[in-house]
From TrEMBL, chain A:
Catalytic reaction annotation: L-methionyl-[protein] + a quinone + H2O = L-methionyl-(S)-S-oxide-[protein] + a quinol; L-methionyl-[protein] + a quinone + H2O = L-methionyl-(R)-S-oxide-[protein] + a quinol
Protein name: Protein-methionine-sulfoxide reductase catalytic subunit MsrP
Keyword Oxidoreductase: yes
Cofactor(s) needed for function: Mo-molybdopterin
Lineage of the species this protein comes from: Bacteria, Pseudomonadati, Pseudomonadota, Alphaproteobacteria, Hyphomicrobiales
From TrEMBL, chain B:
Annotated Gene Ontology cellular component terms: plasma membrane
Residue ranges occupied by any Ferric oxidoreductase domain in the UniProt entry: 55-167
GO biological process, alphabetically ordered: protein repair
UniProt source species: Aliirhizobium smilacinae
Family, per entry: Belongs to the MsrQ family.
Gene name, Swiss-Prot/TrEMBL: msrQ
Binding partners and assembly: Heterodimer of a catalytic subunit (MsrP) and a heme-binding subunit (MsrQ).
Signal peptide: none
Obligatory cofactor(s): heme b; FMN
Keywords, alphabetical: Cell membrane, Electron transport, Flavoprotein, FMN, Heme, Iron, Membrane, Metal-binding, Transmembrane, Transmembrane helix, Transport
UniProt-recorded name of the protein: Protein-methionine-sulfoxide reductase heme-binding subunit MsrQ
Cellular localization per UniProt: Cell membrane; Membrane
Membrane-protein topology: Multi-pass membrane protein
């Protein structure tokens, strides 16, 4: 398969209707709110330009429609189609990400500044803890590039992340039955955070992230289960102690801090040995493939965990 | 105490048999519709799982409907006892389809994986046990068995309470978090099972209340 070139795909061919519509809503809202229509609107609508990244993956891409209509983002509801259906009112601009904690130069990054980072195409496998997987062409930049700008202190051992809380725009954050406690929080060990595979994604399939996939900026850690990839990030904090993580808080027996993809360690309620590739095979021929240790990235990351009991540190 | 039963017009007796057949056909419609949707791409990008889950949820709904027949009669005077067998059998068909989709389309006859799931995963163990328990109930859901078995039939069919409880636990354990949808189904099953525990004292109390009233007349 040839390398992926986003500019060759006309956006009219690949942008589903509901995204146009949500974009129109956004532009309307932006105009109503009286803030910079041209700047913000253009930043959202324009395809992203990215250079080819270092990790090539010769696997069939999951169709864009599957990536954008079948996923988990509990802030918008617990069903797979909920994020696409319920995220129309979410406003990903204006946006900023606070980077603070054990850093020499704490800083608040505006979205325009973030989009000026050197963006790369990163096509990664994505393995959900529920037993399904995708191959997604992300656009983003290494998290380490951001961390370098804030001068991390030597005492910082972990990186903690936090998702935005906006019950009025995120229906899953209000009501009687809320699946999790908010804000959604995640964390990485410093060496995991600085690993070149770890990226902050701002787009997929050549365009900015749709709301349902974590607009405008999310984490992607391809060797870990998908829920580690925290979405719509507003805060990144460098800390000394292992940070709280939402799914571990919700059920520590089933979800650990590390959550590395591991076919040998089953989820207490289901096997992790195989995974179902979404968007392939259809109804009568579901495509099931073997799950790989570290989701196939063992060569790059296994050394981070030398000597660690991966069964105990699930 | 039967205001609701008065509000619902009684179906003429000659339509009773027909209405039961209509119930069978209507009851199988969700399965047929979702199958059509799944096969034609209408159930999203994971049609097998979605279809499997929908069949399971409908099985629970039919079990809830089956369990609701007795309280409807006791408390509201609505006698739909003639539909109970159809509802119970439909529930069994849905559980069977739910398991078949899991076996054929989800795990694709990978019997090692199926065996491993049943042995190691409590929610699947419980779900499979509920399916097994439903078989004798389905097999004896006919007038001949009722005549032949007498009191034994009533005792055997009390298994539905265990099956309903198993179905509820299976559902709770299968989801990542209990939100409104699962909660409503489980709460209804809990309520209907709880009703069985208080049914005798409740009916006695009602009867006792009626007695003095009649004596005064």
């Amino acid at each position: 398969m040839p390398a992926y070139h986003p500019p060759h795909i006309p956006s009219s061919d690949i942008t589903p209707k509901h995204i146009y519509l949500s974009r129109r809503n956004f532009i309307g809202a932006a105009a109503a709110a009286g803030f910079g229509f041209a700047t913000a609107g253009d930043a959202l609508a324009a395809p992203l330009n990215a250079v080819p990244g270092p990790y090539k993956l010769n696997e069939k891409l999951t169709p864009k429609e599957a990536v954008t209509t079948y996923n988990n983002f509990y802030e918008f509801g617990v069903n797979k189609e909920d994020p696409a259906q319920n995220s129309g009112a979410f406003k990903p601009t204006p946006w900023s990400v606070k980077v603070e904690g054990m850093v020499g130069k704490p800083k608040e990054f505006g979205l325009d500044e973030i989009l000026k980072m050197k963006l790369e195409d990163r096509t990664y496998r994505m393995r959900c803890v529920e037993g399904w997987s995708m191959v997604i062409p992300w656009i983003g930049f290494p998290l380490s590039a951001l961390l370098d700008q804030v001068d991390p202190l030597g005492s910082a051992k972990y990186v903690a992340f936090e998702t935005v809380v906006r019950p009025e725009e995120m229906p899953g954050q209000s009501g009687l039955f809320q699946a999790l406690t908010w804000p959604y929080v995640e964390g990485l060990r410093m060496d995991e955070a600085r690993h070149p595979l770890t990226i902050l994604a701002v787009g997929l399939y050549g365009e900015t992230l749709p709301n349902q996939n974590g607009a405008p900026i999310r984490l992607v850690v391809p060797w870990k289960y998908g829920f580690k990839g925290i979405k719509s990030i507003v805060k990144i904090k460098l800390v000394e102690e292992q940070p709280q993580t939402t799914w571990k808080n919700s059920n520590a027996r089933e979800y650990g801090f590390y959550s590395n993809v591991n076919p040998a360690v089953d989820h207490p309620r289901w096997s992790q040995a195989t995974e179902q590739r979404i968007g392939e095979g259809g109804f009568f021929g579901t495509k099931r493939v073997d799950t790989l240790p570290f989701n196939g990235y063992a060569d790059q990351v296994a050394s981070l965990y030398t000597g660690m009991d991966l069964r105990a540190n699930y | 105490m039967a205001p609701l039963s008065a509000a619902i017009p009684a179906l003429p007796r000659r339509y009773h048999a027909l209405s039961i057949w209509v119930l069978y056909i209507v009851g199988l419609c969700p399965a047929a519709w979702y199958f059509y949707q799944a096969a034609t791409g209408g159930l999203g990008f994971n049609p097998v799982k979605t279809f499997e889950h929908l069949l399971g949820i409908w099985a629970l709904r039919l079990i809830i409907a089956t369990l609701a027949i007795t309280p409807l009669r006791d408390l509201f005077g609505i006698n739909w006892m003639r539909y109970r067998r159809a509802l119970g059998l439909l529930a069994f068909y849905y559980v069977l389809m739910h398991f078949s989709v899991y076996l054929l389309l989800d795990l694709q006859l990978n019997f090692a994986a199926v065996g491993g799931d049943i042995a190691k995963r409590p929610y699947i163990t419980i779900g499979f046990a509920a399916l097994l328990f439903l078989i004798p109930l389905a097999v004896t859901s006919n007038n001949w068995s009722i005549r032949k078995m007498g009191q034994g039939w009533i005792r055997l069919h009390k298994l539905i309470y265990l099956i309903a409880l198993g179905g509820a636990i299976h559902y709770v354990l299968a989801v990542k978090s209990v939100t409104a949808g699962p909660f409503v189904h489980i709460a209804l099953i809990g309520l209907l099972l709880f009703y069985r525990a208080i049914r005798r004292p409740l009916l006695n109390w009602k009867r006792g209340r009626r007695q003095p009233a009649r004596a005064a007349r």
